[in-house]
Amino acid sequence: MIPPKRTPSMMSPMTPCLVASCMLGAATAWASAPLPAETSAFNALPSPWATPYFDQALPLAVDPSWVAVRGLSGGGSHLASELDAQLVMSRLEPSNVSGWSYVPVRGGGSVEGLESLVRAIGATPGLFASPVFLGGVEQLPWVPTDELIVQIKPGHELPDLDVLEYDLGGLPGVVRVGLNASTAFEVLDQVSRVAAQDGVAWAQPNAIWWARHFYTPNDPDYSSQWALHQANDMDMDAPECWDTTFGNASIIVSILDDGIDQDHPDISQVPGNDFTDEGTGGDHTTMCDGHGSCVGGCVSATIDNNLGVTGVAPGCRVMATRIFNAIDFFGFCFGFIETTDAWIANGIGWATQNGARVTNSSWGGGSPSSVVTTAFENARAAGVIHFGAAGNDGSSSISYPASLSALNAVAAINSSGSLASFSTYGSGLFCSAPGEGILTTDWVGSDGFAAGNYATVDGTSFASPYAAGVAALVLSMDSSLSPDEVEDIMAATCKDRGAAGYDTSYGWGIVSAAAAVEAVDTEDCVGDVNGDGQVGTDDLLDAIAHWGPCSGCASDLDGDGQVGTNDILGLIAHWGPCV
């Protein structure tokens, strides 16, 4: 039995972080100096405000050095002079969310002064203003919009709300509604009143929030895919697995990320979709994108095509589900990503409705969201298994959403089989996978992380899709397996590391593709050599191709060391769908 993961009610409350230990790479003193180096941190101050997460109230910190405003354009000439004097309009930076901007506050200030400024901006016709709240275990920006997301209880009537979208993300009874509000403070007040109405299960702001990809780009010329096979066997046993199956093209892994290069010549994929304001169809768009292409290649970079690398499940396919925009402020890539609750929920719902059996989330650190949690849970109930990167801060607090019970959190190991120095670990960790010095696909050309089609990268961002790829291989052997059954197989076949049995440093151990595939009960699928759930022409062609002495061949059904007449007769006897 897998130890229970943290449920929403078990998650540690958020507390403001010390400046030295907060997220690195953000601008905090835009008003007084040129954009600081990547070693600066958010200026997190405690605040009296909180946001709902189901029936909890999660406390929020604020960064008083900047505000978020919707409706600003140009130099802010329509602002009152006293407000214009408090803002550094020359350094206004548009958000990736249409109509929104981040504006530095001159000289920063106190929480009380920030509240007064935000209310004054909101009093200007046509503007909506919010502090830049900080939430989640990594205290990342979180900005309420003038919209709510509300879950209506089954059998109850919809309250008197301005509904903008029904069944958000394919979630029954979840609606996105508009509010008559001009500041985030009004939204936080109204969400409590809506949540208290009869027939409402929960309510939350449709917030803009930041997370981060869990990566650290490294040497792009490193040429060894040790993660798949190496002499010390601290790998995923991929070649041993490929003797049985490369994976089935019907098993699709949704990459919930910043997109995938839709024209990459070495990634096996199906057409993606974009749920942000960019409308890319699943492709990358900004100078800071490329992460999703690296993640996707870990799963399904094509095998035997005389190009670059291979994924752990090269016969399966990935599907770009673009739910983030990478953040580019003043020409700098910070390693942060920007999203909304609605984008994520709609992306998860679309992936589920469009055939994904596995999802991968190589991002996290932001504030928990009721609708995002619900979307993951509903997709899992529909048969989709989820994997998430544990985090890269070396702590024992697994990041949201990997911390959810609906997801399987994955830690990163290095080539010696030890936990990578940067990898997060802790209670609820499911397993470990290679995540340091990982050679994988990149955004084609000069974009992305390296000057070419491939890059070598570090992070739990890449351990997670490797584990997701192993799950796809298991489902390729038996597509009827439930998420619980896939997890049980993977947990039982991991290579044990650390303390005997389960531990919070490695989870159940290092995922093994070969052992997991071998453990799938396919007794009723004799002759299904390619693992597509039926015995057919492809299996017969494989037997013909291996005719003669062939020790260990999958087509050697009678185990006599060669593929011959008896094996062909066995195929014919089991012809058709497996039962």
How would you sum up this structure, described in words?
The protein is elongated. Mean pLDDT is 86; it is low at 1-40 and 217-223. Strands 1, 2, 3, 4, 5, 6, 7, 8, 9, 14, 15 and 17 form a twelve-stranded antiparallel beta sheet that branches. A seven-stranded parallel beta sheet has the order 12-13-11-16-18-19-20, sandwiched between helices. A three-stranded antiparallel beta sheet has the order 10-22-21, with helices on one face. With 579 residues, it is α+β, with helices and mostly antiparallel strands. It is 21% helix and 26% strand. It contains twelve helices and 26 strands. It folds into three domains: 8-211, no CATH class; 214-519, 3-Layer(aba) Sandwich (Rossmann fold), CATH 3.40.50.200; 523-577, Orthogonal Bundle (Type 1 dockerin domain), CATH 1.10.1330. α5 (291-300) packs parallel to α8 (460-477) and α6 packs parallel to α7 (370-381).
Keywords:
579 residues, 12-stranded antiparallel sheet, alpha+beta, 7-stranded parallel sheet, Type 1 dockerin domain, Rossmann fold, disordered N terminus, 3 domains
